[in-house]
């Protein structure tokens, strides 16, 4: 199959079409604007519906309704826009409705800027809305992975009846790279037992999230938690680099992992035994692989483009068996491989928790 030069946002949009997307609702915000722009043209061409909603809140509730009818749905935005969608995302998680949600993160808080950031990690993996819910969260680090994991996200959303998030950022959204536009054989998921398709010839049904009977909501919450536990058993994805002889392990995701990998290659050429573990699923986090490494490795360095969020999950997995350091850069700063190289080269610094290079 021939490679195609694509921008990250365009790869997400076309992959969604290939995955069977039939309804998209969204609202413009940089740096993800190419997604709705692309879909406004392409989705009607394949018999789908594109809506530019009057707000992010409206868009999220529109995909709630369309998903309840059994079609494949998606919305996309960037950090402050995703914040506005949180209530509807909580509703969809409770109603067990499949949806794909794309967040191309930008610097914050507030309106912030339009540069790439990773400051929405907590929002994505801890449940940014109300209630004890979770999303399956993928963190691609190339345009090819944006393509691959967008398609997988639709499959997993249907398989688990749950919203799935693609967590990218302004760097990967705007990056252009060759992509092999491969499409695996799509699975068929029977939705006839729950989708609202009209009650002709069958008893009526409804989808609700208000559970008022004594103990009903607690029972429902335990059901959801059992699903999330199964994710931890079946859906963890990660990649490792240079761990065979590593004495120091770096943990980084998304564009931070990509930049970090360049720095690690240079450090290894200089004789430093350093490796990388790259989480692909941020939830479920690869805590068991990190825990196993901590039994042999004395030092971990977390690189993330925020003031320290994933580092907390690394610390929980390490559970005191090793030192954990952080190199964090907030606010959508343009971080280079040279910046990360300088930080990692100072890994012997004894101060725990925070290691920065200005």
Automatic annotation (TrEMBL):
Domain named Pyruvate:ferredoxin oxidoreductase core: residues: 246-340
Official protein name in the record: 2-oxoglutarate ferredoxin oxidoreductase subunit alpha
Domain Pyruvate flavodoxin/ferredoxin oxidoreductase pyrimidine binding: 14-185
UniProt lineage: Bacteria, Pseudomonadati, Nitrospirota, Thermodesulfovibrionia, Thermodesulfovibrionales
Coiled coil: none
Keywords: Oxidoreductase
Gene Ontology molecular function: oxidoreductase activity
Species this chain originates from: Thermodesulfovibrio aggregans
């Amino acid at each position: 199959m021939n490679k195609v030069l694509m921008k990250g946002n365009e790869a997400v949009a076309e992959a969604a079409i290939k995955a069977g997307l039939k309804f998209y609702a969204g609202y413009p915000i940089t740096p993800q604007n190419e997604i709705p722009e692309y879909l406004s043209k392409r989705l009607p061409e394949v018999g789908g519906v594109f809506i530019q909603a009057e707000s992010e809140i409206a868009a999220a509730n529109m995909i709630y309704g369309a998903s309840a009818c059994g079609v494949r749905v998606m919305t996309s935005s960037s950090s402050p826009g995703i914040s506005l969608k949180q209530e509807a995302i909580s509703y969809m998680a409770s109603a067990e409705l499949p949806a794909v949600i794309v967040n191309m993160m930008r610097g914050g808080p507030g309106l912030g800027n339009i540069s790439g950031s990773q400051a929405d990690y907590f929002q994505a993996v801890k449940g940014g809305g109300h209630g004890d819910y979770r999303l399956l969260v993928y963190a691609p680090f190339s345009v090819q992975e944006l393509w691959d994991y967008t398609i997988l996200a639709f499959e997993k959303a249907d398989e688990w009846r749950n919203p799935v998030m693609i967590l990218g950022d302004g760097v990967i959204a705007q990056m252009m790279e060759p992509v092999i536009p491969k499409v695996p054989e799509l699975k068929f998921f029977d939705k006839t037992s729950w989708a609202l398709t009209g009650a002709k010839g069958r008893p009526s049904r409804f989808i609700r999230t208000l559970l008022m009977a004594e103990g009903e909501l607690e029972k429902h919450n335990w059901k959801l938690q059992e699903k999330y536990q199964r994710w931890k058993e079946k859906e963890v994805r990660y990649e490792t680099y240079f761990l065979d002889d590593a004495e120091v392990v770096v943990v980084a995701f998304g564009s931070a992992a990509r930049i970090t990998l360049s720095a690690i290659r240079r450090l290894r050429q200089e004789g430093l035994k350093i490796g990388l573990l790259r989480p692909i699923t941020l939830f479920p986090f690869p805590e068991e692989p990190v825990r196993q490494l901590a039994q042999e490795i004395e030092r971990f360095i977390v690189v993330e483009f925020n003031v320290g969020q994933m580092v907390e999950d690394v610390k929980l997995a390490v559970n005191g068996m090793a030192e954990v350091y952080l190199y964090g850069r907030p606010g959508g700063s343009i971080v280079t491989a040279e910046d990360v190289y300088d930080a990692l080269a100072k890994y012997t610094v004894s101060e725990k928790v925070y290691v920065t290079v200005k």
